[in-house]
Amino acid sequence: MKSPKAATADECLTLEQLPNVGPAMAADLRLLGVHSPQSLKGRDGLQLYRALCTTTGQRHDPCVLDTLLAVVDFMNGAPPAPWWAYTKQRKAMVGQLRD
Known about the structure:
- The protein is an all-alpha fold and 99 residues long.
- The chain has one domain: DNA polymerase, domain 1.
- The chain is built from five helices and no strands.
- The longest helix is centred in the C-terminal third of the chain and has 14 residues, at 62-75.
- The termini are far apart.
- The mean pLDDT is 93.
- InterPro entries: Cdd1.
- It comes from Scleromatobacter humisilvae.
- This is Helix-hairpin-helix domain-containing protein.
C-alpha cells in the first residue's frame, strides 16, 4: 500500500511521503545519506543532483533535478507542487549542470 503524500513538511515523516517521491527516488536519496525528509531542509537540490550523478557514475535525467528542487523547496515550507513546476528553474541552471 502506498504511503499517503504529506500536505506540509511538518506532516512528512518518511521519504515516500514527500510529494513526487516514489520508491526509486527514495532509494536515490538514501544513497546520498538522506534518510528523513527533515534532513532535506536547507539543502541545495542542484548539489544533491550532482552528488547523485557522482555517486552512481552516471548523469541522471533532468527531471530528477526538478524533483530534488521540488522536495527541498517543500521541506523548506513551500506548498506541494508537481516536479514539472520546477522545470523552468532547472532550465535557468543549465550552465551550472556542466560544471
